[in-house]
Specification:
The chain is of the alpha/beta class. Helices cover 27% and strands 17% of the residues. The radius of gyration is 18 Å and the shape is globular.
């Protein structure tokens, strides 16, 4: 597989990432600087984006912990893709404006994407669930009340936005991406997994990236081979 193909803000995109390259670094290196780097360890939520998976599931992720090759066949939405220049704001953005939910502004893009996911959820029917929705995003100005008010306004509203209009994604396919820095493999059955292990016995196994992502961002780890489970 020469490139990793996915959608970015509704546009077909391809990338040739190293097996350890994070989505945050890749996005910011291509001008998507609305996606902020805060802690680079998955704690603050400043780098939050929404990933749409095959089957239509939308979920927020910390882009500092997501490896770009894992996005094959998926769709990524950043704060840049919500409202085109001159167009109305996305309801999540408008709610934060109306409730005065942005202070210094550094965390705001991440909160916006958190609210975007909330728009498309149908299980935020209790106050504690809506509070929990914000638990992955930190506001260092400690202004949570207006942000919570914005979320209360939009949760479960399912607006007719770019995310809802997106075409369905194809089912997951095996990934075998070769790069000058190493190889990234994502087998989809047991036989392919055992073969990948035999071919790359020293590969770093990945099942989510909450620990591997920290190795990459904090310890500057580099892997000649990654096998994504």
């Amino acid at each position: 597989m020469a490139v990793i193909a996915f959608r970015l803000d509704g546009v077909a995109t391809s990338a040739d990432p190293a097996p350890h390259e994070t989505l945050l670094d890749w996005l910011r290196g291509r001008g998507k600087t609305g996606v902020k780097e805060g802690c680079a360890e998955g704690d603050c939520g400043a780098c939050t984006v929404v990933v749409v998976e095959p089957g239509g599931v939308r979920r927020t992720v910390n882009s500092c912990l997501v490896l770009v090759p894992s996005l094959q066949g998926r769709s990524v939405w950043t704060v840049h893709g919500l409202a085109r220049p001159g167009a109305p704001l996305h309801p999540a953005q408008a709610a934060l404006v109306d409730t005065l939910g942005s202070q210094c502004g550094f965390c705001t893009p991440g909160f916006v994407m958190c609210l975007v996911e909330a728009c498309h959820r149908d299980d935020l029917d209790a106050a504690w669930r809506r509070a929990d929705q914000l638990s992955g995003n930190l506001c260092r100005c400690t202004g949570y009340r207006p942000i919570q008010a914005a979320l209360d306004r939009v949760a479960g509203t399912r607006p007719d936005d770019a995310l809802s209009a997106e075409a369905p994604l194809e089912p997951d396919q095996p990934v075998a991406h070769a790069h000058a820095a190493g190889v990234y493999l994502a087998p989809t059955d047991w036989d392919a997994l055992w073969q990948a292990r035999a071919d790359h016995p020293d590969a770093r196994l990945v099942a989510g990236t909450t620990d591997v992502g920290l190795d990459v961002t904090q310890r500057h780890a580099r892997y000649a081979a990654v096998i994504d489970l």
